[in-house]
Amino acid sequence: MTVIVGIKCKDGVVIGADSSATMGPSPEVKTIEQKVNKISVIGDRVIVAGTGEIGLGQRFNAVVRSAWQQNDKPFNKPPLEVGKYLANRAITDFKSTHLAVINFGSLVAFPTENQSHLCEFVQGGFQPELKTDNSLWYASMGSGQTICDPFLGFMRRVFWRDELPAFQDGIFAVTWALQHAIEVNPGGIGGPMQIAVLGPNKKGQLFARLLDEAALAEHIQNVEGAIDHLKNYAQQPSSEGVLDLPKKPK
């Protein structure tokens, strides 16, 4: 049980996840729930977050790390080619143990062609889907997808419309989506949230890092401020723009 959220921004990528992992002999029978790290930063340039079987996640992280250590050669290709390369290597590795269905999915942020990119590897078939500027530039995965997808659609309607969000707005949206999923989920999704960002450093180079507790606390406070603002808006009396309801016809 998990939820991961990714947003491609104008000047970077934001990926977040919860910290809960359930253990048990089968999906129907669960024994305990434990805190785990679901986001990896590879080479200070690549972010990997996964949902599904932990063993497959470990193997996919090894595939991405191996690709990055090849003098960045696989990551010098166009973004969709990078996604296809990682999917091909991962599927070959997964099927070496005779898997019929790949019970693992992932969101990966990486730099190529001097830009940051977000690619979704769909759970089940593990086919790469690149998030683009003129299409859907955000995604959620895991058991919390049914919670996060509608929430992200709402955020797009209110804040983004047909434009990619700015970097800080992307962090704000991921923080709020994760907080919402952690608070209302029926089980198996828990905090603390984890958020990693891929964006320009002071030298203008794309750099990946996990946000520390202080940074997370600041963004959570921003979300609480937005919630308070909505509460105050709802409580303010307003006499302007209120229409009188028509009388019920006889």
Mean pLDDT: 90
Counted beta strands: 12
Helix fraction? Answer: 25-40%
Proportion of residues in extended strands: 25-35%
**Biggest beta-sheet profile:** 5 strands, antiparallel
| SSE series | EEEEEEHHEEEEHHEEH
> What are the segments in which pLDDT stays under 50 over at least 5 consecutive residues?
none
Given helix and strand content, the structural type is: alpha+beta
The spatial strand order of the largest sheet comes to 10-1-2-11-12
Total of DSSP H or I helical runs spanning 4+ residues: 5
CA-based shape: globular
Question: In angstroms, what is the radius of gyration?
Answer: 20 Å
Roughly how many Å apart are the termini? Answer: 56 Å
Summarize, please.
By secondary structure, this protein is an alpha+beta fold. The protein contains five helices and twelve strands.
Identify the notable features of this structure and list them briefly.
single chain; 250 residues; alpha+beta; five-stranded antiparallel β-sheet; 12 strands; 28% strand
Description:
- With 250 residues, the protein is α+β, with helices and mostly antiparallel strands.
- 36% of the residues lie in helices and 28% in strands.
- It contains five helices and twelve strands.
- Helix 1 packs across helix 2, helix 3 packs antiparallel against helix 4 and helix 4 crosses helix 5.
- The protein is globular and about 65 Å long.
